[in-house]
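Example 235.
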Amino acid sequence: MRFDVVTIFPEFFDTLDISLLGRARRGGTVSWAIHDLRDHTHDRHRTVDDTPYGGGAGMVMRPEPWGEALDAILDDPVDDPLVIFPSPAGEVFTQAMARELSAESHLVFGCGRYEGIDQRVVDHTAARARTRLVSIGDYVLNGGEVAVVAMLEAIVRLVPGVVGNPESLVEESHEAGLLEYPSYTKPQEWRGLPVPEVLLSGNHRAIAEWRHRASLERTKRVRPDLLPPDETPHA
Ligand code: ADE
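Predicted structure in complex with adenine:
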């Protein structure tokens, strides 16, 4: 997988080289480039924003630097790129979307700041490449950078070969439509708190049943919206 990120804060992405993503890059499974939007400005102040037409608070990112930055990437695309603009006005990012995006060969992220990017940039991009607006949740961040780091971490770990033991991906929260069951490790007792007996039993069937029940109970309690219709508690 290849990804490109356009941002006015390239240093935000220095952390990508840590942990799993860094290992994936060194192993050759993933490659990326971070592009400074201000490299595509032509004034002394390297201006990227301006006041909104129609009035209102805040600043809007001007289209010209975005046009140039995206041309530099999309004029010479790797395969069939998918462009993602992180935005609180986008469709909500989920584990299912992470899985879908992990099968893409080229992702391009355009990080907006301020009140967003001039809509013509999105429209122009959508006319030349598959384009999506994606939100990581119903809250407002100062810009798309944190959203892109979060999305990349969720996406890249699903790229085949990135996580050593693919089985560890199967039982996670959201993969089975339920939240993950609680986990325990040694010691058997800690500060007077024992590990649930069944997990020490060696009875794989009983353990699987306990875990399923624990997943279901946890999901009912904190995320009833995730339950399949036949498990939904009646009001
Ligand atoms: N930019 C600002 N808020 C955001 C959000 N919730 N998701 C994605 N991008 C954003």
